[in-house]
Amino acid sequence: MKLIIAIVQDEDASRLVSNLMNDGIGVTKLATTGGFLRAGNTTLLIGIDEAKLDTALKIIEKICKSRKQIATSPSPISGTSGVYVPYPVEVMVGGATVFVMDVEQFVKF
After folding, report:
1. Is residue 52 classed exposed, middle or buried when 0-12, 13-18 and 19+ CB atoms within 10 A define those classes?
2. What are 65-95's pLDDT values in tens digits?
3. Single pTM value for the model
4. In the chain, what's the furthest Cα-to-Cα distance?
5. Cα distance between the two ends of the chain
């Protein structure tokens, strides 16, 4: 048995959960916040038999694609101290950060 922890962007989460569940893969969904952009994301906990591990990883890879997004970043104004003006910056978002761990014991009551 394996535990997949997948951190995905909110806009990919619903479609990913639907695809996993359609394939018979149970998912627990947690709302989380990323540190870099301080934006909402979703963390999925997926307990899975090793035989279905590759299937789950392929679904995650298919649904969660990286894309460019405009974010605002504060920039100091010349000649002033402590005054910041936001300006747009293009950043890569999306994709998935995935951890796969061995599960020593699984019990369902």
Report:
1. middle
2. 877 766 666 555 555 566 666 677 766 666 8
3. 0.75
4. 65
5. 17
